[in-house]
Fold this protein.
Amino acid sequence: MSKGVIFDKKNILIIGGAGFVGSHLCDELVKSNKVICLDNFLTGRQSNISHLLQSQDFIFINHDIINSLDLVKQPELSGFKIEFQGLQEIYFLASPTSPQDYQKYPLETLLVNSVGLRHALDLAVKYQAKFFYASSPAVYGQTQKIKAVKEDYLGAVNQLGLRACFEEAKRFGETLVNNYRLRHGLNTKIARIANCYGPRLRLADGRMIPEIIRLALKNEAIIIYGDKNSHGSYFFISDLIKGITKLMESGENGPMNLGSEWKNKFAEIAQKIFAISGSKSEIKFAPVGELMSTQPLVDIDLAKAKLGWFPVVLLDEGLTKTIDYLSAQQGILAADEFSEKVL
């Protein structure tokens, strides 16, 4: 049964809301909506959302979406009047995204993007809610000969490779979302999110920028997998949040690339981090393994044309904000991660 807004604000469910991207999305959407943040802290952190817990428009539920959920039976949501208003929007961000995490949790990665995603889509059908799915350029597979990958590129993925638990999970997830749209008439959105960075990345995340920052803060040697000409593309978290909200507000279903069209050499990024942090670290190079394969550069012409969106935060500005946050929080974050593992 479709339910519209009968009170002053929309009800929005963010699944994976305590993670890096999810928590920033909570910050933005709670400004004018009622937000339900669902997370099981597999890779998210309580510290990412602790500042929101006092808001009457924000409710956190500790739950693994691999298990079904009846929101009406959640007593903490009584003020959201789910039985009368339902949900208007659902954002699905519940998946490990760094190679380190999905290698540690391969089954969880596969299940959350299949069984968990199905439970989320069933909620969207029940409430006729708009639905956002966070996918990845990993679905493109091998793209070495492509300068920048457009959304219609069909790449080859090794379904038994070291990265397959994530790549195949996201490919299946897109297919599941699209077929729910076709079968049930849902208003769904799929974004393929490229390398993003910013405050609330975990120092032990394992991805390139937080790893360089972690080692730079300790003045330890930085290992870059590749050579001095190896490059990638990175954009700041605030730009991503604007892209997600613009896509959700648009009439587009996607899939749509959200990323940066600026290429940066890994060694140059490391040197910028050294300069900003005052680090005395040095750079060493190592061969690229299968697990460390970089994401392809993505073409964002579709996002420009349909959403009027493109990244605006320059790398120096974004790195400064990220380093300031991680350097100030490194002791607190380490203690926080330890306590959550114990719990």
In short: Residues 315-342 form the longest helix (28 residues).
